[in-house]
Amino acid sequence: MTLEDLNVNRLLECCGSPAWARQTMARRPFQDLAALETAAEEIWWSLPEPDWLEAFSAHPKIGDASTARWSADEQRGMKHADCDLAAEMRHLNREYEKKFGWIFIVCATGKSASEMHRQLQERIANNPAAEIRIAAAEQAKITRLRLHKLVVE
Question: What residues contact residue 110 under an 8 Å CB cut-off, 6+ apart?
């Protein structure tokens, strides 16, 4: 896909916030991928928390990415999790969501199941104000990777 072919729907594949996608499109034209990534990041961090939460809700839970195009590849480290670890991840995912009100967001690309498990264990101890910033930073990483996939691959 070229930068000229970008549209809101394609951007929503990278980040599930409609406000982010619309505002990113409003910044066109982009000179190159780096300019798109810079605009995407600036816009992401300017959004209010409800827009972040909307983006989070567009993700499958870690270990439950069987139907999402990029998520399944990003979470491939979970394919090697044994049954006990997978069950523990499901349990911790439920506890995390109950505590914070959103699903656990982590840039899973290149991470093993045990690495994601460790991060989930650590982050569940955070307070909500700190955790939403961490989750937003993880979403920003995911978005950058997906924009690259969208434009380059």
Answer: 77
The single residue of 59, 80, 91, 148 carrying the catalytic annotation is: 59
| Cα 64 to Cα 67: distance, rounded to the nearest angstrom | 8
User: pTM for the whole thing?
Assistant: 0.87
Report which of 89, 88, 100, 85 is spatially closest to residue 134, judged by C-alpha positions.
Answer: 100
Reference 16, options 150, 143, 147; nearest CA is 143
**For residue 153, what are its two tokens?**
């691959």
Q: What is the rounded CA–CA span in Å between residue 50 and residue 34?
A: 27
How far apart are the C-alpha atoms of 1 and 91, rounded to whole Å? 39
Contacts of 88 (CB under 8 A, 6+ apart): 117
**DSSP conformation letters of 57-109:** HTSPPTT--SS-HHHHHHTGGGGG--HHHHHHHHHHHHHHHHHHSS------T
Tokens representing 49 are 């928390």
Active-site residue, 59 included: yes
| pLDDT tens per residue across span 77-128 | 556 567 888 889 899 999 999 999 999 999 988 888 899 999 999 999 999 9
